[in-house]
Specification:
The complex is a heterodimer of chains A (213) and B (577).
Chain A: H1 2-36, H2 38-41, E1 45-48, E2 51-55, E3 63-69, E4 75-79, H3 108-125, E5 152-153, H4 155-169, H5 173-182, E6 184-185, E7 196-198, H6 199-209
Antiparallel strand pairs in A: 1-2, 3-4, 5-7, 6-7
Chain B: H1 2-30, H2 38-52, H3 62-85, H4 102-113, H5 123-126, H6 129-159, H7 172-198, H8 217-225, H9 246-270, H10 274-299, H11 304-308, H12 332-345, H13 360-371, H14 382-402, E1 407-408, E2 411-412, H15 415-441, H16 454-468, E3 481-482, E4 492-493, H17 495-524, H18 541-572
Helix pairs in contact in B: 1-7, 1-9, 1-12, 2-7, 3-4, 3-6, 3-17, 4-17, 6-7, 6-8, 6-14, 6-17, 7-8, 7-9, 8-9, 9-10, 9-12, 10-12, 10-13, 10-18, 12-13, 13-18, 14-15, 14-18, 15-16, 15-17, 16-17, 16-18
The chains are: A alpha+beta (213), B mainly alpha (577).
Chain lengths: 213, 577
C-alpha cells in the first residue's frame, strides 16, 4: 500500500518538477537573458559590415589554402603570416563538435606533435626575429588548448608575432604592440586568471588599421 | 607562483566566508524555521504538497524514508531514459538528432540520476535541447536534492531524542521540495544570469555562423551548484560558451564548493554545536588544500613529452609557462589546477582543463581526491554523510585507543553501527576495484582504452573510480560510445563499458545511501548519555587529526597498489610510451 502511494507521489513529482525545472525555469532564464544581455546570450558575435564573422569568445583559424589536399581529401592549409595565429587546436577550431586532445604526459606521439609545432612556429617567425630560438617559444604557442577554440594567446606569444605582423603589414612595431595591448584581456580586478590577447579581435583591429589587399 | 597561490587563497577565503551564511540558511530551511524566501517560495511549496497529496508534517522512519527515496529515483531514472530514447519526437531545436544507442542511454540515465554525470556522449553533437533541459538538467537539480535529504536525515537521526518516537528522520518529500525550492532553484536563477552577463550563451536559436549555441547558462549553473558536472559541450567548462572569463571561472568554482562546504555549518547548527561543524570543515580543508598545492606545483612543470621535444616550459616574461596542454590561456595553470582539485574533492566532475593531459603527479591528485570517497567536501549532501561515516569510524578507533565505549554526541556507538559504517565506507572502493579489474583483465574493456602504457591503465582505473564515486570527471580518452556521423547516425556503444559503468554508478550511489539511512535509524533510537570525563571529544584539533588520518589511510591504502601502475609510474619516469 505504502509502495503504491510512493509510486504515485513520485510520478506526479517527476512530471511536475520536470515542467518547473526543465521547461519553465530555462525558458524564463532565456527570456530574461535575451532582453537583458542580448549580445552575450547569443554568443558575443562580432559583426563586420553587418556580417557575422565569429564570436569574440571563440578562436578561428587564419590560414591560406594551398590548393593541395591530404590523404583524406581535406584541404592542406598553412598559417597566414599577415594575421596573429591562435593556439594550436585539436579540433581544427570547431565550434560545433568539441573534444580534448587527450595527449598524455608520457605519450610518444605527443613528442612528435610538439616537435612539429615548434619547427612550424620557428619557421613562421624567425625570419622576422632572428634571435628566436626554441627556448624562446612560449609554451602556449605549441600546446593545444582544452576547448580547441581558446580565444587567447599569451602576451609573450603575441610579442613574438608582433615583429612578423609589423614587417608583413609594413606597420611600425610600436603601433602593432599598442594594438596588442588594446586587445589584451587582463586579470579580473587585477588578481584572478591570466592575461591573454584576444586573437580574433586583434586581427580585426589590424585589418581596420592597415588593410591588406 | 606567488600570484597563483594568492588566487587560490582568495578563492578559498570567499568559500569560507559564505559557509555561515548559506549553511545557516540551509539549517533554517531544514529545521522548518522562517527564512527570507518564505514569502516568495512558500506558496509554491504548499502548492506542490497539495499536488503531491502528501502530509509534509508527517515524519518517516528510516525504512519509509529510504523507500520514498528509492522509488522517486527509480521513477526519475525511467523518465530520463524515456526522454533520451525519444529524441526524434522532441520539441525545440533538435538538429535532427536521433537517440543514441540503448546501452548509452542506460549509462547516461544512471549517470544523471546518481549525481555522477559521467558522459560517454558529446552533448553538442548528440543531444537535443529538450534532452539537455528537461532530461539532464532536471536530474541535476533532483539528484543533488536527494543527496541533501540523506545528509539531513542522518543529522536528524544523530540528534533525535529517544522520546521523539520512531518516525524522526523527517519527511522525504518535504526535504526534497525544500532543498529544491529554497536552496537550489533560487541560487540557480541568480547564478544563471550572472553567467550570461559574462558571456555564457542562453538561447534556443541553434547554430549560427558556425557557432553551436543553446540554453547553456541555465544548465551550467546547476551543473556546478549541484556538484553534477555534465557539460552542455563535450569539453565541459573549458569551452568559452560555458566558461568565458576569469570571473566566470572563479564564480563557477565557487558554485561547486559552496553547498558542500556550507553543509558542515548546517550540521553544526542542527546538532547544536557549531564547533562540531567547523571541526569537519577543518578536516576537509586540510585535505583539500594539500591536493591543490600538489597539483599546482606539478602543473608548473612541463611533461616528459614536451621536454623531450625541446619545448621550454619555464615562466618567461608574458607567459606563466607550465604544462599548458589541455589548458586555457585565460585560466592559466593556477586556476586550472585549482579547478581540478575543486571538482574532484566534490563529486562535481566538471572540468576546465583536460585531465588526460595533466602531468603524472598532477594527475595523481584527482585520483587521490576520488580515493577519499567523496568525503572531502564531497557531493551536495553525499560529502557530509560520507564524512560522518568516517567520523563514526574515527570515534570508534579513538574509543579503542582510550579503552572506552565509543560515544558520538552522547550516543553509544556499538557493534551494529560499526558494521553498517564499515560496509558504507567499503562498498564504494570495492565497486571500484571489482569493476576496473573486470575492465582491465578481460578483453571487453580493451575497446574503451585510448592511450598505451600506464596511461591506459590510468584511464580505466579513473573511469570506474569516477563513476563509483559519482564524480563524472574523466581521463577522456576512455570511450563508451562512438558516433561516426552527426546526430548519432551509424553510432555504436561499447556495451560492456556502458553497462558496467551504469551498474557501478547505481550500486555505489544507492547502497551507501541505504546504509546511511539505516545508521540514522539506529542512532535515532538510542538513549542520550551525558558526556563524561572519558568521552572522546569530536570538536578538538586532536580529533580533526585523527579524522584526517582515517580518511587518508583508508583512501590511500585501498588504492595504493593500483595507483602505482598508473600516475605514479608516469610521474617518476621520462620514458615515453
Amino acid at each position: 500500500m505504502q509502495l503504491g502511494k510512493d509510486l504515485r507521489t513520485a510520478a506526479i513529482a517527476i512530471v511536475f518538477l520536470t515542467v518547473v525545472l526543465g521547461i519553465v525555469y530555462p525558458l524564463v532564464i532565456t527570456g530574461v537573458s535575451q532582453v537583458a544581455f542580448n549580445d552575450k546570450a547569443n554568443g558575443s558575435q562580432i559583426k563586420v559590415n553587418g556580417k557575422v564573422v565569429g564570436s569574440r569568445l571563440i578562436a578561428t583559424a587564419f590560414v591560406i589554402d594551398t590548393g593541395r589536399k591530404d590523404a583524406d581529401g581535406a584541404p592542406i592549409t598553412v598559417p597566414d603570416p599577415k594575421f596573429f595565429q591562435p593556439r594550436p587546436s585539436a579540433t581544427d577550431y570547431s565550434a560545433t563538435a568539441t573534444f580534448f586532445s587527450n595527449r598524455g604526459p608520457n605519450s610518444a606521439a605527443a613528442r612528435f606533435f610538439y616537435r612539429d609545432q615548434l619547427s612550424a612556429y620557428l619557421q613562421l617567425n624567425s625570419k622576422y626575429d632572428p634571435g628566436l630560438t626554441r627556448a624562446g617559444v612560449p609554451v602556449d604557442a605549441v600546446t593545444t588548448s582544452a576547448s580547441g577554440v581558446d580565444p587567447h594567446i599569451s602576451q609573450a606569444n603575441a610579442g613574438i608575432q608582433s615583429r612578423r605582423i609589423a614587417a608583413v603589414r609594413k606597420l611600425p612595431l610600436d603601433r602593432v604592440q599598442q594594438l596588442v595591448k588594446d586587445n589584451t584581456d587582463g586579470r579580473f580586478v587585477g588578481l584572478i586568471g591570466e592575461p591573454g590577447v584576444n586573437v580574433l579581435e586583434l586581427n580585426l583591429a589590424l585589418d581596420q588599421e592597415a588593410p591588406v589587399r | 607562483m606567488a600570484q597563483g597561490f594568492l588566487q587560490i587563497a582568495i578563492f578559498f577565503a570567499l568559500v569560507a566566508a559564505v559557509v555561515p551564511l548559506l549553511g545557516g540558511h540551509m539549517a533554517r530551511v531544514f529545521m522548518g524555521e522562517r527564512t527570507f524566501l518564505d514569502r516568495v517560495v512558500g506558496p509554491l511549496e504548499r502548492g506542490t504538497y497539495r499536488l503531491l497529496r502528501i502530509d509534509a508534517g508527517r515524519g518517516q522512519d528510516w525504512k519509509g524514508y529510504a523507500k520514498s527515496l528509492v522509488v522517486f529515483s527509480m521513477v526519475g531514472w525511467l523518465a530520463l531514459f524515456l526522454i533520451l530514447r525519444t529524441q526524434t519526437l522532441h520539441p525545440f531545436y533538435t538538429e535532427g538528432y536521433h537517440s543514441g544507442t540503448w546501452d548509452l542511454s542506460f549509462n547516461t540515465a544512471s549517470s544523471f540520476v546518481t549525481n555522477t554525470n559521467w558522459q560517454y556522449y558529446g552533448g553538442e553533437t548528440t543531444l537535443t535541447y529538450f534532452s539537455q533541459m528537461a532530461g539532464l538538467a532536471v536530474q541535476n537539480f533532483l539528484s543533488a536534492a536527494v543527496g541533501m535529504t540523506v545528509a539531513i536525515a542522518l543529522i536528524r537521526g544523530i540528534v533525535a531524542r529517544r522520546r521523539d518516537g520512531g518516525a524522526v528522520l523527517g519527511n522525504f518529500w518535504q526535504d526534497l521540495v525544500r532543498a529544491t525550492f529554497y536552496v537550489l532553484l533560487p541560487l540557480s536563477v541568480i547564478g544563471a544570469l550572472v553567467l550570461v552577463s559574462q558571456g555564457v550563451v542562453q538561447t534556443l536559436g541553434g547554430v549560427t555562423s558556425g557557432l553551436f549555441r543553446g540554453p547553456v547558462a541555465s544548465q551550467e549553473v546547476i551543473k556546478e551548484l549541484g556538484t553534477n558536472g555534465g557539460g552542455f559541450f563535450n569539453v565541459n567548462s573549458s569551452y568559452p560558451f560555458e566558461n568565458p572569463s576569469a570571473f566566470s571561472n572563479l564564480f563557477e568554482m565557487f558554485l561547486i564548493l559552496c553547498v558542500p562546504a556550507s553543509l558542515t555549518y548546517t550540521y553544526g547548527r542542527m546538532v547544536g554545536s557549531r564547533r562540531q561543524g567547523w571541526a569537519i570543515f577543518g578536516a576537509m580543508s586540510v585535505l583539500f588544500v594539500a591536493g591543490v598545492v600538489v597539483v599546482y606545483l606539478a602543473e608548473l612543470h612541463g611533461t616528459p613529452a614536451q621536454h623531450l621535444a625541446g619545448v621550454h616550459t619555464s615562466a618567461v616574461d608574458g607567459s606563466t609557462g607550465g604544462n599548458l596542454e589541455g589548458k586555457e590561456q585565460r585560466f592559466g595553470v593556477a586556476n586550472s589546477a585549482l579547478w581540478t582539485a575543486v571538482t574532484t574533492v566534490t563529486s562535481c566532475g566538471a572540468v576546465n582543463a583536460a585531465f588526460e593531459s595533466l602531468t603524472g603527479i598532477g594527475g595523481l591528485v584527482p585520483f587521490a581526491n576520488l580515493a577519499y570517497g567523496e568525503s572531502v567536501f564531497g557531493g551536495v549532501g553525499t560529502g557530509l554523510y560520507t564524512m560522518l561515516l568516517y567520523v563514526l569510524l574515527a570515534v570508534f578507533i579513538g574509543g579503542l585507543m582510550v579503552g572506552r565505549t565509543p560515544e558520538f554526541l552522547g550516543k553509544k556507538i556499538e557493534a551494529r553501527e560499526i558494521k553498517l559504517v564499515s560496509l558504507g565506507v567499503l562498498v564504494t572502493p570495492l565497486a571500484v576495484l571489482v569493476s576496473s579489474t573486470l575492465a582491465l583483465a578481460t578483453k571487453y574493456g580493451k575497446p574503451s582504452i585510448y592511450a598505451s602504457g600506464p596511461q591506459g591503465s590510468s584511464e580505466t582505473l579513473y573511469a570506474y573510480l569516477s563513476q563509483a564515486n559519482n564524480n563524472g570527471s574523466a581521463f577522456a580518452g576512455y570511450t563508451g560510445y562512438v558516433a561516426p556521423n552527426a546526430g548519432n547516425l551509424g553510432a555504436h556503444g561499447v556495451t560492456f563499458a556502458d553497462l558496467l559503468g551504469g551498474v557501478t554508478m547505481l550500486g555505489a550511489r544507492f547502497a551507501p545511501i541505504l546504509l546511511v539511512l539505516a545508521i540514522a535509524g539506529t542512532l535515532a533510537g538510542k538513549r542520550v548519555a551525558p558526556s563524561g570525563l572519558g568521552t572522546l571529544r569530536t570538536d578538538t584539533p586532536t580529533f580533526v587529526g585523527l579524522l584526517i588520518g582515517t580518511v587518508v589511510l583508508i583512501g590511500a591504502l585501498t588504492f595504493f597498489p593500483a595507483l602505482l601502475l598508473g600516475p605514479v609510474v608516469q610521474g617518476l619516469t621520462d620514458r615515453l610510451f
